[in-house]
Amino acid sequence: MKTYLNITSIFLILILGFSGCKKDYLNINDNPNTATSSTPQLVLPAVLNNISSNFMDYFNYGGRIAGYMANGGGFSFVGSTTVTYNFDSGSNNALFNNGFANLRSLQYIINTTNGVPQYALYNGVARILKSYSYQLVVDEYGDVPYTEAALGSENLTPHYDSQTAVYQALITEIDAAIVLLKANATSTTVTKLTVNGADVMFGGNVTKWIQFANNVKLRILTRAQTGPLAAFVNTAFGTFSSEGFLFDDVVIQPGYVSTSARQNPLWNSYHSSFTGTVAGNSYIPTTWMYSFYNGAKLNDNSRGLLMYRLYAAGTTPKGQLGAPNNPNSTLPNWYVGIGTGAGAGNPNTEAQGVLKSRVMGQLIFPASETYFLLAEAALNGRGLTGTALDNFENGIKASYNYLTKVGASTTSTSTPAILTSYLTTYKTANAASYLVNYSLTTTNPQRLEAIITQKYIALNFINGYEAWQEYKRTGYPTVSGTSATTTFASIESVGATADRLPVRNLYTTTEYNLNPNVPALSGISIWTSKIFWDNN
Q1: How far apart are CA 356 and CA 413, in angstroms?
Q2: So what's the pLDDT on residue 346?
């Protein structure tokens, strides 16, 4: 479609040095100084870097709509779609546009490596990332272009495929990718993922890519397990690769540096520029989310101190995020790090918490999420790995473990003994709560509520987009009324539904202007047109 063709073509021409168009597309003389193609080992690190950067689109949208942060920008935001949720075709467009920009680049890798044995590993990796990226878009828009997408000038107005068909196709892509990776993992004739440092996510470790593929597959199947795809999902749950699941925090590290504009995008958005200029971010922590730490809902001083700057049990948030290292209350932004200005967060002053360093890797799939997905799978009798209780508690420990990591490589500072001690303290502090003590649950709804609520806590300022999708699917954590501690819905919401929250976004204005195949705007409601797996 023209929307993402324009965005991605510009990116490929100016940044990567190639164009997806035919040479005679503009009917002008060839320019010998302009590259018209590239190689997978050059495109892969670029698209991974873009996925890392564009993760912020999903991060910001998810963080505010899932209740992790609220806008503190003053009266100028009153009545805006940010707080009313009355989304139109101009709202949150980056979710769609940048999502398809990444998919365009990934499809380039797939198209140019199909049937080319030398690049089998790149083809497999691109298919995995395609499935990861497509789910993000489908979960907010439903039907999207798939079979005719990313064809460039060959089709500027692609057909929209049904969301259920796309979900099934993503599983097919993942399975095909795993077959390719397993068949070529030890080959001496294929081009390795380490060439020119192409794999900035797993450093060329093919086993980790296969395990990550299983993680993505598990997320997709978990989301779709009830409703029209139930039978398909039941069968697919028995087809995971024997390599198992990845229990690492998955980060993209393209080589962020603190001496130029190429620093971590999360730090850049919520702390300061590489020159030390404070980020102009207007969001503050919500009273709702703070209550999962300060005792209003649950007691969790350990993670509270790692999450919120100036944290104190029994208090309300101070509007700052981060570990209590030299807190400077004059800074309006949320940050973690020792020092202020340009001296904060440099590699020699690394901190724990969510903002560890200017050069930290960008987390895109935390280990805690994997454990909670497996806990739900065990609850539903899927028979994958571990019991529901073990995965539930390992998810809590993995959340704490990530917050205690430091630096560019996000190195853990917590030993197994420290993690066990934290869990014991947490359970004791919430001895009567089944949301923390899984053994106190007596029904499957309570067990699911405990799993999703802990996942929600673990994803705080980590991946609000995923937490938001899980709320849409399950209705957890539970919300009610309009109090700041009982719901994360904005008090300015214009929604008439029980929770006053939307269920999707609208397609972009550009799509409606340029692609006649986009579903009719008149047939879509942001309040009632649910994604097929939305049971809430």
Answers
A1: 13
A2: 54
Q: What is the pLDDT of residues 452-501, one digit of tens each?
A: 999 999 999 999 999 999 999 999 999 999 999 999 999 999 999 999 99
Residue 260 buriedness (CB in 10 A; 0-12 / 13-18 / 19+): exposed
Report yes or no: 267 and 321 within 8 Å, Cβ to Cβ.
Answer: no
For residue 208, the model assigns a pLDDT of 98
Cα atoms in the Cβ-side hemisphere of radius 13 Å centred on 384: 31
- Cα–chain center distance at 161: 23
What whole-number distance in Å separates Cα of residue 10 and Cα of residue 87? 28
Tracing tokens 């080959």 back to the chain, one arrives at 187
- Residues (pLDDT < 50) of the chain are 1-35, 75, 323-330, 332-339, 348
Compute φ and ψ for 411, nearest 5 degrees: -80, 135
CA 228 to chain centre: 25
HSE-CB of 133 using CA atoms within 13 angstroms: 28
Residue carrying structure tokens 């950067």: 53
For residue 343, the model assigns a pLDDT of: 55
Residues 6+ apart with CB under 8 A from 519: 143, 160, 507
pTM, two decimal places: 0.90
Q: Which two tokens stand for residue 207?
A: 């086993």
SS3 content of the chain, % helix, strand, coil (to 5): 45, 5, 50
For residue 337, which of 406, 257, 264, 263 has the smallest C-alpha distance?
Answer: 406
- Measured N-to-C along each axis, helices 388-403 and 367-379 cross at an angle, to the nearest 10 degrees, of 170
Question: How far apart are the C-alpha atoms of 418 and 459, rounded to whole Å?
Answer: 21
The residue among 459, 489, 488, 469 whose CA lies nearest residue 533 is 469
- pLDDT recorded at residue 325: 40
Is 7 in contact with 514 (CB distance < 8 Å)?
no
Could you say which DSSP state residue 13 is in?
I
Please provide residue 501's backbone torsions phi and psi, each rounded to the nearest 5 degrees. Answer: -115, 145
Taking the alpha carbons at both ends of the chain, their separation in whole angstroms is 32
Q: How big is the CA angle at 386 (ends 383 and 387), to the nearest 5 degrees?
A: 85
Which residues, at least 6 apart from 163, have a Cβ–Cβ distance to it below 8 Å?
A: 138, 142, 143, 144, 531, 532
pLDDT of residue 196: 87
Integer Cα distance of 396 and 417 in angstroms: 14
Buried b / exposed e across 329-364, counting CB within 10 Å, b at 16+?
eebebbbbbeebebebbbeebbbbbbbbbbbbbbbb
pLDDT, residue 261, reads 77
